[in-house]
Amino acid sequence: MTKRTRVFGLSLMAVIWLFSSCAPRPAATVPAAKRPLVLGFHVLCESSKAAEVLIGEIPSLARQGVNLLIVEVDYNFEYVSHPELRGEDPIPAATIKRIVGLCRTHGIRLVPEFQSLGHQSWDEKTFPLLIKYPQLDESPGKYSGNKGKDPWGTDFYCRSWCPLHPDVQPIITDLYDELIDVFEADALHVGMDEVFIIGDADCPRCAGKPTAELFARAINDAHDHIVKKRGKEMMMWADRLIDGEATGYGLWEASKNGTHPAIDMIPKDIIMCDWHYERSYEKQGTKKATFPSIRIFIDKGFRVLPTSFRDVKVVKMFIDQSLAVPSDRMLGHLCTIWHGLEPGQAARLPQLKAASKKIRKASGRS
Ligand SMILES: [Zn+2]
Question: For residue 4, what pLDDT is reported?
Fold first, then answer.
């Protein structure tokens, strides 16, 4: 190499270095370094019978590495502040205490869930709040038998409470408090997924208001109580904060009813349980699903707990894509089954086995 070519070569290297240091970094394709990760399990617990079964399954969940258990109780606890809102077979406090003790023994973080705002009915059954206090319904007197078309043209799904009715929060925060206390919890999951009835044209308080502002109000009211007043963490389902059009997720796993701008109107310390269940999304135009919402939430400053359902292939894809996001704000993975457990079922769930294998490996756990 002559002096001239060496100088040229060095200059070329300097230019390349300068260029590469300014260029955007390519997306990470390798998992972040091993670190403790959450392996969560979300389960419905809608009766005292279901709670007894859950108690029997906790050791099995622990053996699979579950270190976060989200128990969705909703109205099915023996509430003292509002006994009129108890479900048909409410769980006694003594039973919850056995769950608390077992989770503590096995090193599992236990978090209760109360479905808030939406999901105030299922099929033809309306849940206690809107039965006892029909004036709190966002669409009172409408959708007889919980049937009909909602304003977005889809079949009526679930009732919502009115986020602006002044009587809602005092009642609901009483229930939140009882759950936090009996579960001895350091966090509460408030649900808030799949809210389709919001800003109803016949609600005297909400009609005409942007649905994002109404949704943010519901989140901020819950946060004021759970985080600011009680000093606990708050978790929620994340779908209403994602643009269903831009991400290609559609109207179930993301929002097409205008709520998603609420993502910029709420505190960043809420843990987003970002659920996705499909192998592909037509609007994404890719053969395999991509899950852009993980980065969207992390880039906004939130912590994310990606959440999957029963399709093992999707569970693996979702976890692999999550682990490729180099951020400590990607917390791990949450499995859900959307029903109660049956005796012996926890040991057999293929999706939990798959998630357990990947999360343990990525955590450096055996
Ligand atoms: Zn309203």
Answer: 39
